[in-house]
Structures are given as structure tokens and as C-alpha cells.
Amino acid sequence: MAFITLNRTKLKENYNYLDDLFKKSDIEWAVVTKLLCGNKTFLQEVIDLGIKQVCDSRVTNLKTIKGMAPDIETIYIKPPAKRSIKNIVQYADISFNTELSTIRALSEEAGRQKKTHKVIIMIELGELREGVMRDDLLHFYSQVFELPNIEVVGLGANLSCLYGVLPNEDKLIQLSLYKQLIEARFNRKIPLVSGGSSVTIPVLLQNQLPTGINHFRVGDTLFLASDVYNSTTFPFLNSDVIRLYSEIIELTEKPMAPSGEMGQNVEGHTFDFSGVDPDATSFRGLIDIGILDVEVEHIKPVDPKMKIVGASSDMVVIDVEENPRHYKVGQLVEFELDYMSALRLLNSRYIEKKVID
Question: Which portions of this protein are annotated as coiled-coil regions (predicted)?
């Protein structure tokens, strides 16, 4: 069985760096755990870091976290579905919101549960995912402030996740100014401006973060050292906290071009091998993982002499040319992961999860 590992020591090193970075700038931050897909083994490692806030987009994952560490503040980071309102109030201390009718439902449910539910209202800043339109924002806040059992603790924005709109200084200044406008209009204190995520960390490192932005939500950079803004990794963080290992289950010298009448493969793709020498051969291996478990385009062999040449539902085909490293059946192949590959692998029940030091 293929497996992924989480390196406890390297995770701790990344966490300590980020925690120091945010503390120096007087910024609160929460660990985004949606990448871990509710895996208790890996979640425990995150909890043991001493985190105070955790964000997730699945209420079942927040339920798991509350069961493991009731004192950690939980944040539901997408607009709640109305049929999930009861569980949101029960397991999320804070939720991100964009719909007035949903916040009214949260208010009613919080009353039934004898709680005060906290909300952060998201603003549309150009990414066209979640967010209240800016022209409607003051009217929106005026109505939310009137609701019982609801405490408005912040405003926020999402950038880069859908279309890649970057959180440059101008965008973040806009967010900060809206906080000032709301406070002045309603004479209410807005404690949090949640304008930061992994993609915003370079803005902070370059000292271009507006002073009003005081809350970050970080997962990608913590687990994968991702510099999302520049589509690379931070050299001062560990990019190998999470790795994939898969076993070679066949290794044979074979032609480099298939033979026979060609049609579509299992994914509906067609291929052209007209430029490949029909007599050319290389050592081709099969490993025990497939597109059921991961998007193959998002994994990269650590060995630069190895390349992925194809995949089906349960197997990936690798090419090791003349096999200079003398791979054998039964050996493990190590892969680098990005966010999308790690997410899919962690969500697969066929992939074993292990913690290493």
C-alpha cells in the first residue's frame, strides 16, 4: 500500500518560524487544517504545536477537532449551508458569512443552543468567490448588528483561490479602510481583519502589509512551504513535511511506444507516438497508486532521473530510462507533493498515513 508521511520535526520548525513572524507583526493567525481531511493522527500533531485557532471548510472536521481539543477556537471558513446550521453553531465558534438570511438562521440556532455565535463577514475584492459586494456592505452590517446571539468579530476577504487574484497592497488597503468605515459609521469595534492567507505571506515579508490587517489563515505554507504569491517554495521552510511513498510492483524493459490500433484511454485522452522510434526501449515500472488517489500531474518524483509517463485508475507508469540507480521490484519511490496532490491523497482511504520524526 502506498503511504504518505508527516514529518513531526519539520512541521514544528515551520510552525515556529511562522509563529515568530506573525508575533513580530502583532498578527493573530489560525492553522487551516482542511488539507488534512480530518485525519486524527495528523490533526493531533497540529494540536500538539500549541495552536489557539483552527480553520476548516468541513464541519465534520471541526467536530473531530472539538472532540480532540475542546478549548481550541474553531473557524468555519466558507458560507454555511442552511441545512448545516445546527452543526455550525455547535462545532464552529466563528463562521465566515456572506448571506443575511443565513446569519439570521445562525442567530436563531444560537439562541436555541444558548450560545453567542461569532461571525466574520467576507467582502468581495475581485476574486468573485465568496463576498458581499462593496456597495452593499454598510447596509449588510447594519442589519447584522441588530441580530441577537450574533457577535460580529471581523471582516475578511478571500483572494487567489479561484482566479488567482493576488492580495497586493492596494487590495489589502481597501480591506483595512472598510474596517475603519464600519467602525466609524456604527461606533462598533471590529477586532479582526482577516485579510491574510498563505498567499499574503510575501506581502508581510516585504513590509508591504497595511497595518490594519491583523489576522492570517495559513495551511499551504505551513505544511508545504508554499510561496503561493510567486508560485514557488520558501527556501527557509521545509517543503518536505508531507511526502508520498509508493512501491514498485513491476519493472521491465519495454518499448517506448505502444503498438496496435490506438483509441482513447480510461480518461478519454488520445496519444500520438508518431515521433517515437518504434525500436527504442527503456525500463518502465508500475507503482501502486493511481488517479483514483491523486492527480498525477501534481506529484513529482524526487529522483530527477525518473519521470511519470502515464496513469490509470490504480497504477502509475514510471520511466527510469536505463535504470542507472538499479531500482528493483519492492522498492519505494518518493514523491514531492503540492497542495492539490496532498489534498487528494489525504482524502483517499486507500493511502496509509504515517507520522515520522
Answer: none
